[in-house]
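Worked Example 4.2. Consider the chain below.
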Amino acid sequence: MKTEKQQSQSNQPTFGTIKGNIQIQRNLYGSDDVLSLCCLKVTLLDANNQWVAEECTDDNGDFAFLGTPMGSYTVIFPDSIVYQKQKFLPQNKAFHYEFPVDLTSEKPLVANLHVHYSLPKSGVIQGYPMESLVGVNASA
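Applying the procedure from the previous section yields the following structure tokens:
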């Protein structure tokens, strides 16, 4: 006969899900001009930085790693996105393309990995090139 502790352990999930979204901010038609692109590659590494899986975003910019065993992982996003011969970049130079994720029986779903890219705004100040990024949000 199973004890209560054994029964509760057998009911705990052994697999989890990691999901999120990638979007680009074009600013052609105002600040809400956001595109979601398909086929952007997102990579999943294990705690030893070994490749586990790759997923591509769907038409809505969504990706998901389904049925992932419990453990510690790193999700790798693109360092830039080229769309219509324009290079979209993340929020700032301190942006990290790698996000640590822990799947546990208490937290088998990580669903808040949303990354936003935008075009750099270039200009010249006192003869020196200046590059700053606007309208970008990167969060995990």
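The two ends are 44 Å apart (CA to CA). The CA atoms of residues 40 and 52 lie 17 Å apart. Compare this with Example 4.1 before moving on.
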